[in-house]
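Researcher: Quick sanity check before group meeting.
Model: Go ahead. Protein one:
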Amino acid sequence: MKKPKKESSDQSRRNFIKNAAIASSIFIVPRHVLGGVGFTAPSDQLNLAAIGAGGKGTSDIFNASVNGRERVVALCDVDFSGSAKKSVENFPKAKLYADYREMLEKEKDIDAVTISTPDHVHGPAAAFAMARGKHVYVQKPMTHNIREARMLTEMARTNKIVTQMGNQGASNPLLDMVKKWVDSGKLGKISKVQIWTNRPVWPQGGPFPASDPSSKPSALNWDLWLGPAPEIPFTPNLHPFNWRGWWDYGTGALGDVGCHLIDIPFRTLGLHYPKDAECSVGSVFSKMWTPDYNPEGCPASSFITLHFAATQKSQSPIEMTWSDGGIRPSHPDIIPADHDIGGANSANGVMIIGEKGIITTNINDSSPLMPKLYMNDGTTEFGPDRLENQEPEYGHQRKWVDAIKAGFESAEHKGLTSSFDYAGPMTETVLMGNLAIRSYMLRRENSKGQMEFFGRRKLLWDGENMRITNLEEANQFVGRTYRKGFEV
């Protein structure tokens, strides 16, 4: 008689996690008696890894470990000499890698990864991990372009991956107050949303910096930092942060905080793909009559308009405007002149405008949300300026870990505030603004030998098919080209 094949230790551990609820019924001695209060048996732990262990990645992987409840087995970063050193200190037993592809091929027992790289690596790294059955937590914006967002959303469903985007404010319980105001019909028909930010707060709008290979830090793997972007010599002032203002790597002000700000009306109004996008961009003049032209980078300021079909919650079509570079909307008459709109000093904010009143909030990252309701009849209702929070970032990473343990389509999974089913369409909406900006800068020589801007129009968007229908040249910005080895 043939002996049954012995189950590997990794298979056994995975099966234990999957069937934890059933298995727990056979334990005679409570686990806390064996290991102390808060003890988690090794077989109950997830094996986690970080792709991007510095900067925001430091808190993402630390919060996902839930104070050591889960096991961090590997860290990947292109430069462990900078802020990633903190993650090495936090997880001294974790194996270190520069290339996430090598890490995921060698470390077969990884269950889930946090991805906290520059924007251009989000999509390639997440797709590579998801293809290997790894659950993923991806920093905002979920991807660098619209095509990647759609692909990852569909991939998560097909491969039954538990996902979460890192817009942690989506787990802020004060959002329930905004939702209640909208759902109760206090505003009546809602027709307009205005969003603004003081970003960029990094260098943006000028010429691309000059390369200088001699100044490359010895610990930095520049080729892996470039990832899917075109190969260029080492260029200072990109790593570790100022990449945000360049299209090959970042997604500008929208990518930085759009997933925090646009999330609030997108979620509470039940919005879907926009119908169109239109923008204007602030000009910078280094010499008389000739505006600077730097299409490889994001502008210093922009104004974007998106239109959405009516939803059950809005009861009418919605016009959403976005402004960055410190440009904000006018102060509404029903809000007292000495009140901030949005956050402190009105630097960032959202206004949801209905026929009976206005809801205003701050940016929803880890800043106080500061929800306020102003009615036309003079009545008001304010949420607390500060919310007492017992765990970091409203438990956004911990809830993702709990959902992995509970399983795909579990109540915990369905309760996640930014799984890709939601975060994908919302990210596509954020990135539509960037598509409009890049189209605005398209130009070509006309019959008179003059450079003519031809993309400065309202762009009509077929969301289901991911296509601009009235300007074919704009569709080049739906996706991107990839360097070999980093394709999505």
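Researcher: Fine. The other one?
Model: Protein two, sequence then structure:
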Amino acid sequence: MAALLTCPTVKAAARAAGLDESTIRRYRQDPAFMAEYERRCAEMLETATDNAKAAMPPAIDRLRGIIDDDQQQPQQHIAAARAVLEYGLRLVEANDFEQRLRALEERSRK
């Protein structure tokens, strides 16, 4: 399981676990194994998302500091401003998408 979660391919996972690829493929046919695999994948994604969320405020503060620092070169101001705008727009779009998805899910439950 650990090898499948950390290796990019079944072949690499089999090599890391010391198993044949066919053994890994058999495991992947087991519904209980796949349910646990999917649960762990979702958990890893949630952890990574939480870590990214935690890193955002200091990153934005750092970029804002570059923008506000008159000693920085114009290229650095432009790069920092572009990053703030670009990622800000992505966050707005992602949030909008999530809200729309929740609204659709609520409607489908009724």
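Researcher: One line on it for the slide.
Model: Residues 31-68 form the longest helix (38 residues).
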